Amino acid sequence: MSDAKKINPMLKMALELGPVIVFFAAYLKLREETFLIGGTPYDGFIVVTAGFIPLMMVSTGILWKLTGHLSKMQIATLVLVVLFGGLSVWLNDDRFFKMKPTMIYLLFGGALGVGLLRGQSYLKYVMEEMLPLQQEGWMILTRRLTGFFILLAVLNEVIWRTQSTDTWVYFKTFGLSAAIFVFFMTQGSIFQKYALEEKKD
C-alpha cells in the first residue's frame, strides 16, 4: 500500500503540469528576445529554461510536502531536468535540454526492459493500485510500453535534430503528452481481458 496522502486531483494536476505550461507560455513570449547577462548573450529559450528548473523543483517539493510521496518517475524526471537544464544554461547550449526527453524515455524503457529480462514487470509496482491486472496482462503491457518509450526517445532525437526549436517545443508540450494518452487509450483490450475481478466478502 502507498503511504501517499490524497490531495485534490486538480491541485495535483496543476503541480505536475503547471511548470510545463508556464515554460511553453514563457517561451512563446521570449523566443525572439536576447538577454545580455554578465556580458554573455542568452536567447529566450535558455532564459526560459533557467526559470523552468527552479519552478520544477518548487512544484515537485510542494507535491511531496502535500502527499508525503514522490514516485520514482517523478524523482528521475526532476533529476534529469536539473542536470540537462543546468548544462544548457551553464554552457549556453539548448541541445542539452532538448536531449532531456530522450534520456527520460531511455531510462524508463531501459528500466522496464531490465525487469522483463528478469521475468518481472516493474510497471506493475508503479501502477498496480490504478490498474489491477493479472500477471500476464502486466507483462504484455510492459513489453508494449518498453517499445513505446524507446520509440519516443528516437522520435525526440529526430525532431530536435532536424526541426526548428519552435517545432520541438510544440512537440514536447503537446505531442509527447498526446502520444502517451493515445497509447493507454489503445490498450483497452488488455485492461478488459486481464482485469482482476474484485473479491466479494
Automatic annotation (TrEMBL):
This is Inner membrane-spanning protein YciB. It is found in: Cell inner membrane. It comes from Shimia thalassica. InterPro entries: YciB. PANTHER family: INNER MEMBRANE-SPANNING PROTEIN YCIB, INTRACELLULAR SEPTATION PROTEIN A-RELATED. Plays a role in cell envelope biogenesis, maintenance of cell envelope integrity and membrane homeostasis. It is a multi-pass membrane protein. GO terms for cellular component: plasma membrane. Keywords: Cell inner membrane, Cell membrane, Membrane, Transmembrane, Transmembrane helix. Belongs to the YciB family. Coiled coil: none annotated. The chain crosses the membrane at residues 12-30, 42-63, 75-91, 103-123, 144-162, 168-191. It comes from the Bacteria.
